[in-house]
TrEMBL record:
Recorded superkingdom: Bacteria
Domain Ribosomal protein eL8/eL30/eS12/Gadd45: 5-82
Protein name, as recorded: 50S ribosomal protein L7ae-like protein
Pfam families registered for this protein in UniProt: Ribosomal_L7Ae
Organism of provenance: Paenibacillus chartarius
InterPro entries, per the entry: Ribosomal_eL30-like_sf, Ribosomal_eL8/eL30/eS12/Gad45
Length: 83
């Protein structure tokens, strides 16, 4: 399951702005996007990932993604940072 990847990642950037910066800087290994997040926000990220050649994995919900990151609130997207 993809949540395990998030939990095991050594370094994450959580949230839209932070994840976007990580991808733009070429430091993202993979990006996890919640299916229930606002498409106006996620579509920009998905397009950026395609352009940068970063894998995008969709997960069921913002709540579960936030939980996998160890935070109490939902997360629309999370980037796994390259070591």
């Amino acid at each position: 399951m993809s949540y395990d990847k998030v939990k095991q990642a050594a370094k994450l950037t959580i949230g839209t702005k932070q994840a976007m910066k990580t991808v733009e800087a070429g430091q993202a290994a993979e990006v996890f996007v919640a299916k229930d997040a606002d498409p106006r926000i996620t579509s920009k990220m998905v397009n950026l990932c395609r352009k940068m050649g970063v894998a995008v994995t969709y997960v069921d919900s913002m709540k579960l993604l936030g939980k996998a990151c160890g935070i109490e609130v939902g997360a629309a997207m999370v980037a796994v940072v390259n070591e």
